[in-house]
Design brief:
By secondary structure, this protein is α+β, with helices and mostly antiparallel strands. The chain folds into two domains: 2-234; 300-489, Histidine kinase-like ATPase, C-terminal domain (Heat Shock Protein 90, 2-Layer Sandwich). The chain is built from twelve helices and seven strands. It has helices at 2-70, 73-97, 102-111, 119-129, 133-165, 170-299, 305-337, 348-365, 384-400, 431-441, 446-449, 456-467, and strands at residues 346-347, 369-372, 379-380, 406-414, 417-424, 471-476, 482-489. A five-stranded mixed beta sheet has the order 2-4-5-7-6. Helix 1 (2-70) crosses helix 4. It is rod-shaped. It starts with a helix and ends with a strand.
Length: 491
């Protein structure tokens, strides 16, 4: 059993581990693809920005040379306008390098004619990956190009200042033009290197992304396959276990069917035995009780107190024995013959009065008075046979323990519960018996009920009350006597 549990735990751990691997792989794949796609998008934006950067400085160079030879202010304005493109990108690079506010970097990128949708990606990549070798190298080339742009800007200012005060000779114009062309060549070379570096880096990222994707996809497929195999094995084992349990249950059902048949046969035998007892014991006892009653009645006509006392004692004892056998047989019928009177409506006062009539002469022999205070309107469906046996034993016990007293039966209804009470003015319960009887009323096991020789009557009462799903409580009255309280559902 321990090995099975350990095996089950091991399988559960394996499945949990597979879940973790799958979760980690999928999450990693999503995050890596997101980062990579954003880097690629930013790389594309940087290459587009470099294109605007190069066009801006090339146009600015041409406008400056044209301005040098024509001295037309419109060319000077165009020069400044086109040169503002690389100068704007330069402003963005300086702001990002010095960790200035992102709004400054965005203003520079806008001046550099970068698209608004790309600005966040441009800033994000620069901030988070500026130490990556290919991007670091590209930024260095960007910085070198900016130095050339600054030189071009200075020459432009110089040309503009000279043209404002004097006419330039051809030689000076030629030298300035050559210097501008040289700067333009350096800018073009730096721009090409920048584009190549970013392009190569982008291709490497794409290749790495493909490799990483293949790795994680294979990991996910492997994990899923292993999980499927483990699940399939568990299903096969579960099916085998289920078949085994079905076979065991089938055997149990067959055994129960056999037991049911045997019990049915045994119950039939018990019924026959109860019928035999009823005929062979109860009938002679009833005849004997009637005969003793006749003898007792005849003895009253003789002036012999001893004879009267003895015949009365014989009659009372015979009647008590008959009542006990009758109660015991009713008890047996309930357990072996079913609950025939269940759900039939009857008057509670009439049932109590019937029991009082049965015990009238026995009570009279002890100078006891039986009082029935049950409300005539109370009707109930409580199993009549069971309640009859319970009342029989309680009243019988009260009469046995009372002389020259009163045995009273009464009832009341509270919260849809019937409270049926039998109390007497006898000697009451012994303290140890009182504790024991109340403990018995809370026990459900018949084996526990037999732990103490409490008499057959109390055992029958407790078991029958349990059948009714009711409660029974035993009390000693404050003045004198005992009280037994039965609590059941009214219907």
């Amino acid at each position: 059993m321990t090995q099975i549990k350990d095996s089950a735990k091991s399988k559960n751990h394996n499945i949990i581990l597979l879940y973790i691997i799958l979760f980690f792989s999928c999450t990693s794949l999503i995050v890596i693809n997101y980062i990579t796609i954003r880097i690629l998008s930013a790389s594309r934006a940087y290459i587009n920005g470099e294109s605007h950067y190069s066009k801006g400085q090339n146009k600015a160079s041409r406008y400056l040379i044209t301005y040098l030879y024509t001295e037309n202010n419109k060319n000077w304005e165009s020069f400044n306008k086109e040169l503002s493109v690389p100068l704007g990108d330069q402003l963005a690079r300086v702001a990002l390098t010095q960790n200035l506010n992102d709004s400054i970097a965005k203003r520079g990128f806008r001046t550099g004619r970068n698209k608004e949708d790309d600005l966040d990606d441009l800033i994000w990549v620069f901030k988070n990956f500026n130490t990556v070798p290919f991007l670091k190298k590209a930024i260095d080339e960007w910085k070198n190009a900016d130095e050339s742009v600054n030189q071009l800007h200075k020459i432009g200012i110089k040309v503009h200042q000279k043209l404002q005060v004097e006419k330039l000779d051809e030689e000076t114009k030629r030298k300035l033009s050559s210097e501008i062309s040289l700067i333009c060549e350096r800018l073009g070379a730096a721009a090409d290197r920048f584009s190549n570096i970013v392009g190569d880096g982008t291709r490497k990222i794409k290749d790495n992304l493909i490799t990483i994707n293949i790795f994680f996809i294979l990991l996910i497929i492997s994990s899923t396959s292993i999980y499927y195999v483990i699940t399939l094995k568990k299903m096969i084992l579960s099916e085998k276990a289920l078949k085994s349990k079905k076979a065991q249950l089938r055997e149990m059902v067959n055994d129960l069917e056999k037991t049911k048949i045997e019990l049915s046969t045994e119950i039939v035998q018990h019924k026959k035995l109860i019928g035999t007892i009823s005929h062979d014991i109860k009938s002679p006892l009833k005849y004997l009780a009637m005969t003793n009653k006749y003898i007792y009645e005849e003895a009253k006509n003789y002036d012999n107190e001893k004879l009267k006392k003895n015949t009365k004692s014989v009659y009372s004892s015979t009647l008590q024995l008959f009542n006990f056998i009758d109660s015991l047989l009713t008890y047996s019928k309930i357990f072996f013959g079913g609950k025939s009177s269940e759900n039939s409506v009857y008057n509670l006062k009439e049932l109590v009065q019937m029991k009082h009539n049965l015990f009238h002469e026995i009570a009279e022999a002890s100078n006891n008075i039986l009082i029935n205070e049950i409300d005539e309107k109370i009707t109930t469906k409580i199993n009549k046979d069971i309640l009859s046996v319970v009342l029989h034993n309680i009243i019988d016990n009260a009469i046995k323990n009372t002389e020259d007293g009163v045995i009273k039966t009464y009832s009341y209804i509270k919260n849809k519960k019937l409270y049926l009470i039998v109390e007497d003015t006898g000697k009451g319960f012994k303290e140890e018996d009182l504790v024991y009887y109340n403990q018995l009323s809370n026990q459900q096991s018949a084996e526990k009920l037999m732990l103490k020789n409490s008499g057959m009557g109390i055992l029958m009462i407790v078991e029958l009350i349990h059948i009714l799903n009711g409660d029974i409580n035993f009390f000693n009255k404050k003045e004198q006597g005992a009280k037994v309280e039965i609590i059941t559902d009214l219907n």
